[in-house]
């Protein structure tokens, strides 16, 4: 997989890192990988945990598939519009 870029959203509370990575295999299609980074694990969503990482300034972070994180959904929703 090759990184093709990324974009971020801001958590209004300033607690959760919100990022979507753009990746592709060679000349294949680009896939969006939504991720959130948290200072503590979320309750009852262990199956959505991607892993943990160490941030140089913030320390340990729990990385989740953004599709299961309500903060990701709330941040993205204004960008994609509301359903009518």
In short:
The protein is mainly beta.
Secondary structure topology:
Layout: E1 2-9, E2 17-24, E3 30-38, E4 49-55, E5 59-65, H1 70-80
Antiparallel strand pairs: 1-2, 2-3, 3-5, 4-5
Biggest β-sheet: count, sense, barrel? 5 strands, antiparallel
How much helix, percentage-wise, in residues?
Answer: 10-25%
Rg estimate, integer Å = 14 Å
Would you tell me the structural class of the helices and strands? mainly beta
Report the strand count.
Answer: 5
| Tertiary shape | globular
Distance between the termini: 37 Å
Q: Numbering strands along the chain, what is their spatial order in the largest sheet?
A: 1-2-3-5-4
Overall pLDDT score: 92
Low-pLDDT residue spans: none
Order of helices and strands: EEEEEH
Count up the helices: 1
Instruction: Give the amount of beta strand, in percent.
Output: over 45%
Question: Would you kindly provide a written description of the structure presented here, covering whatever features stand out?
Answer:
The protein is built from one helix and five strands, in the order βββββα. With 84 residues, it is mainly β. The protein has a five-stranded antiparallel beta sheet, with helices on one face. The mean pLDDT is 92.
Q: Which labels suit this protein?
A:
84 residues, mainly beta, 5-stranded antiparallel beta sheet, 13% helix, globular
